[in-house]
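for the writeup, i need someone to sanity check this before i put it in the appendix. the sequnce is what the collaborator sent (i think, or maybe the updated version? ugh). structure was predicted straight from it, no edits. if anything looks off just tell me and ill rerun, i have time this weekend
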Amino acid sequence: MALMNSWVTSANSADHPFPLNNLPYGVFSTETTEPRCGVAIGDMIFDVTAAETDGLIALSDEPLFDLPFWNPLMEGGPAVWAALRARLTALLAEGSDEQHKLEALLIPRDAAELHMPFAVSEYTDFYAGRNHAQNVGTMFRGPENALPPNWLHIPIGYNGRASSVVVSGTEIRRPWGQLKSPDQDLPAFLPSRRFDIELEMGAIVGTPSDGPISVQEADDNIFGYVLLNDWSARDVQAWEYQPLGPFQAKATATSISPWIVTKAALEPFRCDAPDREFALLDHLKDCGPMLYDIDLAVTMAPQGNAATTIAQTNYREMYYSAAQQLAHHTTSGCPMNVGDLLGSGTISGPNKPERGSLLELSWGGKDPLTLDTGETRSFIEDGDTLTLIGAAKGDGYTIGFGDCSGTVLPALEDPYAR
């Protein structure tokens, strides 16, 4: 597929993240409008809520866009998803007969505030990138015991907090937690000193299920993808994680990018999972290319300074796809809901510049990074802004997600002061 031209001329650049080929879904507001559904096209946002009100989009007897999130559209099912994409493409394509009606429904993106694009029903985070798991396991257990015995057979995950999921740009407060230093006999309650990020992708469930579903059914049920940053207090995690795994270390915040890139927009970028060391059991076996060729990067900007790119990798490095993660989630009979969010787990490549967390990049703090400013970092300092960037490169076009960023604020002086 080549670049599809739009009458919104800013969308017709090979490097622009929001061409007609993309049409990602978000929620925006302006000084004069309440939050509403919109689609990114070039440097503009197309007001989908207003288009439905004006009769330019009519997909259902009931309104789908009168609420400031995309869950009602998801609930309409894949046929409605496809119908909306076809209608938007026709409206915004070069030569559209509706252009004169639509121009008034375009809002400059730089004049809009972006909000959470969907209501998160529940949130599950996985540990499904082999390079990351190998690195972390090597740090704590040595290379011979880096991967737990189950790791090559199932996508390991834990249930997180839907209430912690925030949109890009939300400031992140450094958390307090119970820490236990190796040289101390007892723990102490202190601000986290090893605050970190995890470069991930998030898959959004668009079709509910009740009972086990296959990998193919799981792939069919995924509506779209976002960038996801799983903020992690490593020192809290080290003390609390045995025997039940992450808890408060992961509960501070999870940031997502503001635009949902639909599965349909990513179809040209599908790719196969890596070779398996052990054949997966039948209910988890690959049934086609389920990963995506999406370039990813992380930047860090100290307060008042320019950003340094500290990592670059690709989503194809994952060992398990989102479809396999979702299928595994349902094996117990666990119902899945519209708006459920699945974090991929940290995405790291085989080489140091491709590691998707500061824990790996600084090797647990033993090998600090040097930024372009000359400053060094082992973990995040107050005032640092961390940004995740993702884009798939097509034939003369780019499919982007919008940045996923957050600035870390100092810990509260007294978390219990009222």
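The chain has two domains: 9-115, 123-409. Residues 170 and 406 are 6 Å apart (CA to CA).
thx in advance!!
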